[in-house]
Design goal:
alpha/beta; Rossmann fold; 10 strands
């Protein structure tokens, strides 16, 4: 099972440039979380801070009793082995075959025999759908295949926490849909805690249990997916709708005069509450996600502290007392699935 990650008061700058300040959140054990935000808001910096590759000026990141910011370097190094990191570009060695790229962490960090390394690598290659391509060089395969190879490499040390940095970058919508399904399937199989940094709205709408958003050097919100998906916070609503009108501009934020002009202009009437698309479920034949039942108990326990729109959405999901995503349970896929179109799912190839 995955490990809970607790972030407390994290603040990071580069020289005089403040990236973000006082970020606090908890990644629940075994659940899938997404961090959204416009380009340039420090999402990748946040990932690297979680794993101890960058040192924030203030705050703590607690992972299994170790503070990834302030603990001795040897403790951070050992705890880092609990993480799997999927880089934005795959970060593969161009002169190595996919097999050797994926085997690299095992050869660097373990004393396993080559026969054992081969067994583990081939298992991970099969999980991400790359059987038959293990002998190819990164330059001989597509961008989507490189992404999956990067994910396979992130899995070889059996991580309890998986961090994915914009796994959709450079992928077309169809490949992004397959990748989304692959991430859910992976969570069903290994029950790892997962954090996906992205600005892709399809991934945000269909994959996570929890969602957050970074903007203007602050964490706007983080919590159950229903909180962000029903939020009327101007920056969140603008981002989710993909509109030009709102606080986000071409440079991260608009000036006061532009915002005042937009506020004075007539606005089209909203079509009612934003619909929440059902979350993806594991592909047929895979076990149910163990995180689903844990999340249900956790979210219902905080219900009275959530905004009314989020509370309504959660109550609708759990209206029949079932557990969405668990085959055979009453209310499977939630009552919302009866009225909203299900997203297209892939086999994870």
């Amino acid at each position: 099972m995955g490990i809970e990650v607790v972030v407390e008061g994290l603040t990071k700058s580069f020289g005089k440039q403040r990236i973000w300040r006082d970020v606090s959140l908890t990644l629940p054990a075994g659940e899938v979380s997404v961090m959204l935000g416009p380009s340039g808001t420090g999402k990748t910096v946040f990932l690297k801070s979680l794993i101890g590759l960058l040192k924030p000026e203030r705050g703590r990141v607690l992972v299994d009793g170790v503070d990834m910011v302030n603990s001795p370097e040897r403790d951070i190094y050992e705890t880092r082995k609990k993480f799997g990191l999927m880089f934005q570009d795959g970060a593969l060695f161009g002169s190595m075959s996919l097999f050797d790229n994926i085997a690299f962490p095992l050869r660097e960090h373990t004393r396993k025999k080559e026969s054992e390394i081969r067994r583990i690598v081939m298992e991970r290659i099969e999980v991400v759908g790359l059987l038959g391509a293990e002998g190819k060089l990164p330059g001989e395969i597509s961008g989507g295949m490189r992404k999956r190879a990067g994910l396979a490499r992130a899995l070889v040390l059996d991580p309890q926490i998986i961090l994915c940095d914009e796994p959709d970058s450079g992928l077309d919508p169809v490949r992004t849909a397959f990748l989304s399904q692959l991430l859910i399937d992976l969570n069903a199989q290994i029950d790892a805690t997962m954090l996906i940094v992205t600005h892709n709205l399809d991934i945000a709408a269909t994959v996570p249990d929890n969602m957050g958003m970074l903007y203007r050097r602050e964490l706007v919100t983080f919590g159950p997916r229903e909180v962000l998906l029903t939020s009327e916070e101007p920056v969140v609503a603008q981002f989710l709708a993909g509109r030009r009108e709102g606080p986000i501009g071409m440079s991260e934020e608009k000036d006061a005069a532009t915002l005042a002009a937009e506020a004075a202009a007539p606005r089209p009437q909203a079509d009612g509450p934003r619909a929440i698309v059902p979350q993806l479920e594991p592909s047929p034949g895979l076990p149910p996600r163990r995180a689903v039942a844990r999340r249900r108990e956790r979210v219902l326990g905080m219900l009275d502290r959530l905004p009314p729109a989020a509370r309504t959405a959660i109550q609708r999901t759990y209206a029949t007392g079932g557990t969405p995503g668990v085959p055979g349970a009453p209310g499977t896929a939630g009552t919302a699935a009866a009225t909203l179109p299900l997203p297209a799912t892939g086999s994870g190839t």
